[in-house]
Design brief:
This protein has two helices and seven strands, in the order βαββββββα. The chain has 152 residues and is α+β, with helices and mostly antiparallel strands.
Length: 152
Amino acid sequence: MVSSSLVEEVQSLRINKNILVNAPLDITFEAVLADLGPESEMAEGMPFPMVLEAWPGGRWYRDLGNNAGHLWGHVQVIKPPKLIEICGPMFMSYAATSHIQYRLAEEEQGTRVSILHTAIGLISAEHSEGVQEGWQHCLEHLKCIAERKTSR
């Protein structure tokens, strides 16, 4: 007899957040790339360095060394300094896929950064709940990076 587990339902999520950054467009885009790459950090402020190959088809992944790591996605679209889109499993190591869009727009007071994250799959309740806080932290962190670079 073959045992079976409970069938999970396919879930979707849609997160749309934005922040105004007191920095020029080009510096803010650099900050987005830094936050997605070597300056990435967890919500607790702990370093969580990622690798972002900032070209179409480039990988976005966590390199753990010794040929170990976790692929988070691939760059689907990049149009510096206004847009980057990434698609892939992100932080979800199960049957799910995501699409992340960072859109930057100049405003009188600086640069508006908007993040749209959509996903579909067997998304865990833990991830559905935590992703709101996670994206807020990412926005605030990239704002700090950009404004620090601007003040130099």
